[in-house]
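Intended use. Records such as the Formylglycine-generating enzyme family protein entry shown here are meant for training and evaluating sequence-to-structure methods. They are not intended to support clinical decisions.
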Amino acid sequence: MRQHTIFPAAFPESWASDWGEDEYGLWMGFTYKGVRQDFRWIEPGTFMMGSPKNEPERDDDETQCEVTLTEGFWLAETTVTQALWEVVMGDDPSNFKGEHLPVEKVSWEDAQRFITKMNGMKPELQMCLPTEAQWEYCCRAGTTTPFYFGEQINSELVNFDGNYPYNDRRKSEYRKQTVEVKSLPPNDWGLYEMHGNVWELCQDWYGDYPAQPTVDPQGEEIGSYRVLRGGSWFSSGRFCRSASRHHYVPGDRSSAIGFRLALGHRAVQSGQ
C-alpha cells in the first residue's frame, strides 16, 4: 500500500459519498444523480518536468526544469465520462457514444462551463482543471522514464495508434476510437489512461518552461492556446509520453480531446 506522509486537511470531505484507502493511497468518491467520480489524493512534492536531452523523439519545448508543488490536491482517477457530462450538462457531444467512454468533442471553454456549473451546485468542491505541472507530476507518479510504464508502451497498456510505435519498436493494435475509462492499467498512484485515449485539457496557457527551478507554476498569464497532455487514441507513441506537450485553440473541439478534474485542497504533515 502506498504510504502517505502528508494528508489532506480534512478526510473525508463533506461532499464525499464514500471514501477509503487502498494500495494506491487515499481516495474519495463524488456521486451526482447516480453517477460517480473517484478522486485520488496527491501529495505535494518536487520533480523534474520535461524530458532529458537523450530521450528519443522528444520535442524542443520539453526543456527540463525542477518544479515544486507545495499544496496537496485531489485528482480524478479518470477523465470525465459521458455519463457524468450528460447528467450535469444535459447533452452528449461525443463522437464515440458510451456512458463509460470519456466525453470528447469538448473545448477548453466547454470544460470551464461544466466546472462552473458543478461549483455553483457544490462550491466546497473547488473544482478546476489541473495545471500542466500538476498533470505531469501525476502522470509520472514518481517515474523519470518516457512513460509511467517504463521505456516503452504497447496497445495492451495504452490506447494509441499502434501503427506508429514509440522509438521504432514493434507495432500493436490501433483501435480507431476511445475505450472505456479504467479499461487499461493505472499508474502507481491509481490514475487511469493518462497516456493515450483522449488528450487532456490543462488550465494553463501554452508557453515556454521557466529556465530556473520554480514553485507552483501556473503557465503564461496570457496566450493564444491552452495546453493539452497525454496523447490520444489516434496519436503516435511519441505524443503519449509523460513529457509530451500539445496545444489547442480554447474554443476548438475534437473527438480526441477530453478532460480530467482536479480539486484544490490544503494538506497537513503526518502527525499534526
